[in-house]
TrEMBL record:
Pfam families: Sigma70_r2, Sigma70_r4_2. Residues 10-71 form the RNA polymerase sigma-70 region domain. This is RNA polymerase sigma factor. It comes from the Bacteria. Belongs to the sigma-70 factor family. ECF subfamily.
């Protein structure tokens, strides 16, 4: 059987080259074919056509890999992969939890006004109507709520929003690559 397998290698290689059109790829296919054949030698029935069995393994390997590669994006230099970066979301999750904790610490009237105007998008007038109070009262509550949230979250200016300094440094460094 060993001699039959060795004798089939040149024909397997020629068949692989005809399928793939690439000598290196063909050699890989033949190697993988032989590995699979040896791994599954117990499924070969003695007395049947060994070269035909090997050619079937090679053809099936080629077809499986062709289907996989058809879905892949050619990116030999990694340019496309470099564009597929995302900011880590761990910090965002933690920031959101900090925000929720701080929001819960606000007095209920301020929290209600802030949620109506800031999160739900109601105008001051609409929020005043919902809360059944004066527009000036809603404006005051929203202002105090924003100021207190800033204190609780240690926000001093707009530069405190967005990724932290470490994440910004990593993103800047990856942009240069």
């Amino acid at each position: 059987m060993r001699d039959e397998i060795i004798a089939a290698i040149p024909n397997l290689r020629a068949f692989a080259i005809s399928l793939s059109g690439n000598v290196d790829r063909a050699d890989d296919l033949v190697q993988e074919t032989l590995l699979r054949a040896f791994a599954n030698i117990n499924s070969f029935r003695t007395g049947t056509n060994l070269p035909a069995w090997l050619f079937t393994i090679l053809r099936n390997l080629f077809r499986s890999e062709y289907r996989k590669r058809r879905r892949e994006v050619p990116d030999s230099d990694g340019a496309f992969a470099a564009t597929l970066t995302t900011n880590p979301d761990q910090n965002t999750h933690l920031d959101f939890e900090d925000f929720r904790t701080a929001l819960d610490k606000l007095p209920s009237d301020q929290r209600e006004a802030l949620v109506l105007v800031g999160a739900s998008g109601f105008s001051y007038e609409e929020a005043a109507e919902i809360c059944q109070c004066a527009v000036g009262t809603i404006k005051s509550r929203v202002n105090r709520a924003r100021k207190r949230l800033g204190e609780l979250l240690a926000i001093e200016d707009a530069g405190d929003f967005g990724p932290d300094k470490t994440t910004q440094a990593i993103m800047t460094a990856s942009d240069r690559l």
